[in-house]
Model the fold of this input.
Amino acid sequence: MSDGRRHIGAAERRARLARRHRLSGPDRVGSPEEVAASLVALHGTDPATVFLAVGARLADPAKTVGETERALYEDRSLVRMHGMRHTMFVFPTELTAVVHAFMAQAFAARERAMLLTHMAAAGAPDAAWLAEVEESTLAALARRGQATAAELSRDEPRLKERFVHEAGKSYEGLHTVSTRLLRVLGVEGKVVRGRPLGSWTSSQFRWAVAPGHPELDTAGAQAELLQRWLAACGPATEADLKWWTGWRVTEVRQALAASGAEAVSLDEGTGYVVGGDADPPEPTVEPWAALLPGLDPTAMGWQQRDWYLAPELRPLLFDRSGNVGPTVWWDGRVVGGWAQRPDGEIVWRVLDGTGVGREAEAAIAAEAERLRAWVGATRVTPRFRTPLERDLSA
Done:
């Protein structure tokens, strides 16, 4: 390039994705912790996504459920908490301080202020009363280890108090103190989601006291997170970084400078990698297939996706809010989608225009069987349904 920056084309980006996201066969790993570290974070809005994303990347997918539950609920080496864009993610525990520093502090202050405002408008008790309830709730949770909101309400009856939110308006709602307070404590980093009441697909979680972590400088935390993400997902554009983090442009630029990121040339314009990561060029990888779940961090990793997802495929693979459904991958590109039918069969479809051949279809079929074998009798329906997934699962 005329400016001296090395150009990283789409094919090389797809090779990086295959290796760094643990999707090609030789690059699969042995534990959920390794998967999460490779991706920085796993989308946690849909509980099943966490397990399906891990299973797609483990060398032995039969270990998926047991090992992921161990990491989340026994060893606590993975933690479910609010992160980028105020969305639920699963992070490696060592990242909780970083996430809390750049996101939770400001967000938590707003959440607590909003709760107190809504309570005051409804004539509910004041901040001193709420502080007493909070202290009592945390003490009860510490005694129990893990508990549901209903169990905590038996220890601290004031959690059952209700107040009307936005009285007289079309969206008026009756809120309990437990629901709102536990959410605030979650974004403040004081409590985390524990083991669910049901199976690994359940969204009814118990609560647990959050692991302790140091308070970090916000700018330093932003630089560290961005450096980790670029190591996993770079090269990426400034637009990709702003979208993934949810930060302002000025924050992204400050973090890029503080992290020592290196500028490269992409088909889309200027991109960034971790300093020193531009050379040597990424070696090619053997063709690979994968079936990734809805909201998978690879499919959702970048705002600018043309290098791995053709624009004409998007209407079938995304819902109206921009959430990606289950996707079929071949050699670094999204080529279709998959679903599970009520009888448990894993079905998939390669979409027109993707140009895959028999080798690809055989590899995709093998991945579908691999998925079916470890999912077993569990039935998985994505939280966010997409046109192709609905069609396939019918």
